[in-house]
Amino acid sequence: MGPHDEQRKPVTFFRWVFKRVRQKGAFYWGTVVALIVIGVFVGRWLEKQEFALELRYKLFKMVQSASPNKPFVQGTSVVLIGDEEYWKGDLARRIPIKRDYLAALLRRLDKADPAVIALDFDLRAQTPDGSYVMHPDYQDETKQLLEAVRDVSKNRSVILPKTMTRLKSGGYVTEPDIYDGFDFQGGKVRTGYIALPFDIRKVPLSQKLRDGGRVESFAEAIVRARNERALDRVRDLESLPYGDYLEHGAFDVFSPADVLANKPEVLDKLRHDIVIVGAGWSNRAYGRGGAADSYFTPVGPLQGALIHANFVEALLGNRTSRPFGETALKVIEVIATLLVAVIFALISNPLGKFFSIVLLMAMLVLFSIFSRLNLGLFYDFFIPMLLVVVHAAYEQIREWQTHAHRVP
Questions:
Q1: pLDDT band for position 216 (50/70/90)?
Q2: What is the DSSP string of 330-389?
Q3: 3-state secondary structure of 46
Q4: 202 φ, ψ to 5°?
Q5: Average pLDDT score over the chain
Q6: Pick the residue with more confidence: 53 or 107?
Q7: Of 84, 112, 113, 86, residue with least CA distance to 97
Q8: What does R_g of the chain's alpha carbons equal in angstroms?
Q9: CB atoms within 10 A of CB 171
């Protein structure tokens, strides 16, 4: 074989590709264009519907585990009120939770000298318009809690939950809470909404209200109280960032009974930490039913307090990833769809097609891992991968039908 033959090989290959592409005809490529347009719209619709979230949570964990740098807790502890306290103890399974108990727990935590104390409990007023006068049964204990917040907030930041509601007509509004109008006398009290995003992989940030104001998320308020500069990375983002997740066992989780008993080994571990207090009892009875305030996450079911702790750690540890923009997502989906069409135009062997499609799907996964590790962007490959499979199945079925019509 001479040097001229070597030079002709690439030209011959591209001519062969061009010939195979032309053989498919205008109808084939017109169908491809139609599938691209439909696929882009269907993909965006599925994204808005939060389609197959639990499966996508598991895939998210897989992408996260590919990182050589394993996340760890930097300074957030959790106090969970469990079955002993709620079903057998002074809390007497009451809703709303007894506020004098929270007051005593808050004062005891203050003696441990934590950096921040956050209460992950619903403190909304009984009626949205604030017209209802508080029942006498709750007045004294509510006073005790607010006074405890006032006193403790002179020593350290205290984060309280803010009630925020989405209206049917659109937009968000805040609603009255039991602490509205109380004079904290200049204490370091912050508030943030505790409602979780529907896609729990995303870290909630400040939300614009219908009246033009803004309300911070619970995690954002905690981080701002601890280290405001940690929020620089997520400032002015148009979409919520994705945050890494740590499992339940990664956090120090303490019993309120041990805190109230003033156990030195517990109080020492809480010193200078962010401490989030939340619900951890069983739903139905002592040891029966799922955990209260529990949600499915990329690392399995977690209580709300631990989810907020994950959000806090993701923000403090700079472990967030921005989502790709709409334009970039559409471009990737168009390229993936075109590659499927080219594969079916060039390869006639069904086994070769199958392995080529598998390789394309693997490339989407690897791109997601690469972009997260090197670009700080998370690419959710599930829906594009689903579109690739559907397109490939459609092309194969159409080929079978065409072949069947040709056979006499």
A1: very high
A2: HHHHHHHHHHHHHHHHH---HHHHHHHHHHHHHHHHHHHHHHHHHTSEE---HHHHHHHH
A3: helix
A4: -90, 140
A5: 91
A6: 107
A7: 86
A8: 28
A9: 13
| Buried-state track 231-241, b at ≥16 Cβ within 10 A, e below 16 | beebeeeeebb
Strand, coil or helix: 200: coil
List, in sequence order, the alpha helices (H) in 183-240: 218-227
**Rounded distance between C-alpha atoms, residue 134 and residue 126, angstroms:** 8
Cα–Cα distance measured from residue 266 to residue 273, given in angstroms and rounded to the nearest whole number:
12
Report the helix count and the strand count for the chain, using DSSP H and E: 13, 15
Structure token pair of residue 93 = 């399974």
Query: Bigger pLDDT: 370 or 4?
Result: 370
Residue partners of 118: CB distance under 8 A and separation at least 6: 158, 159, 218, 221, 222, 274, 275, 276, 277, 308
Cα end-to-end distance, the chain, whole Å: 44
Stretch (H or E) spanning 208: strand 207-208
Give the position of tokens 């490959």. 381
CA distance 160 to 368: 37
Ramachandran sector of residue 365 (left: φ over 0; alpha: ψ -120 to 50; beta: rest) = alpha
pLDDT for 32:
87
**Mean pLDDT computed over 20-30:** 83
Q: What are phi and psi of 377, to 5 degrees?
A: -120, 135
pLDDT digits (tens, 9 = 90+) for 81-102: 999 999 999 999 999 999 999 9
Q: Cβ-count burial of 81 within 10 angstroms (0-12 exposed, 13-18 middle, 19+ buried)? A: buried
Dist. CA 19–CA 26, nearest whole Å: 13
Contact between 235 and 205 (Cβ < 8 Å): no
Query: Which residue's structure tokens are 């993936």?
Result: 336
Contacts of 206 (CB under 8 A, 6+ apart): 214, 215, 216, 217, 220
* pTM, two decimal places: 0.90
The continuous run of DSSP H or E covering 165 comes out as strand 164-166
